[in-house]
């Protein structure tokens, strides 16, 4: 199936998939942090690999990315991407340490990174289980993998599977944010279905094959 | 006459060539490898940003030659020869091939960075192009820029000093 040939209706379906996943994730994040979190309607984009990096501020932008590989019926990759400041804010909230500086910890093993991975685990876990419920597909997430570096350096890992078969990726991008007083928290979910998984997701949702 | 060069940018799974005084750059190499092949005397160079080691495993037809180490290297060499470079004068510098995430054993993504580096070194050796310098591996992303006037490769990493190889 060619990404470029997806119909408007199919893209709408994928948007709804992203919507349901992120909706659940937002609830989990909101409960975890005990604050109000909002989300925007997900965007679905068929992008080249270079364009994908532009979606989060360019290939050199420093990001904190938590990667989950999804195994099972519809192999995919999911990234929960935060800026360094946002990740720091999240850690401060989680560990109740308002002076924590993430920069000093990069490259080390620390309890704070474990906390961050755990947040990713809870939030992304609820994203994936919502997808699984919605599609009735068996989706098994891996353990979280944390990467802090240039966007292109970390995000290309989500493209390795896709790039075996395509020069484009379909990115279902859901933004979440908490409009707190001074410290606003924003994050992106990237769902990157493998080429074959797209057809499986459509089929599971009752869409006719139209190649 | 000194001319101020422009910077040619190479994307992911992309390649291009450059002639002095211009320079050539690619951003955010993770497990990918940046392969610079150059002719020091003619001051021409090419840069490939490869994503995967081996094109024979692909299910994509036609193969995107820019994406794989085994296809990008011969293609890049051909482009350089067309620009007047001499095959016997060609040299290479490479960077990238990091492991950005720690995956458990059994993961198909395990050591993708190292596999990219091995395929790159193999491909260069096949064409008898000596590797003059390399900065590979680790768990850090790299932005690289090559200057064909000086044959210097600048490497920038997050939170580290810039280095030149």
From TrEMBL, chain A:
What is a GO molecular function of this protein? hydrolase activity
Organism domain of life: Bacteria
- Stored SUPFAM superfamilies: CheC-like
What are the alphabetically sorted keywords of the record?
Answer: Chemotaxis, Hydrolase
GO BP term (any one): chemotaxis
What sequence ranges are listed for the domain CheC-like protein?
Answer: 9-45, 114-146
Please indicate if the UniProt record lists Hydrolase as a keyword: yes
Which InterPro entries does the record cross-reference, listed alphabetically? CheC, CheC-like_sf, CheZ_family_phosphatases
* Designated name of the protein: CheY-P phosphatase CheC
Source organism per entry reads: Oceanobacillus indicireducens
TrEMBL record, chain B:
Supply the source organism for this entry.
Answer: Oceanobacillus indicireducens
Keywords for the protein's UniProt record, in alphabetical order: Chemotaxis, Hydrolase
Q: Name one GO biological process term.
A: chemotaxis
What Pfam families does this protein map onto?
A: CheD (PF03975)
**Function summary:** Probably deamidates glutamine residues to glutamate on methyl-accepting chemotaxis receptors (MCPs), playing an important role in chemotaxis.
> What SUPFAM superfamilies does its record include?
CNF1/YfiH-like putative cysteine hydrolases
Give the top-rank taxon of the lineage listed in the UniProt record for this protein.
Bacteria
Write down what this protein is called. Probable chemoreceptor glutamine deamidase CheD
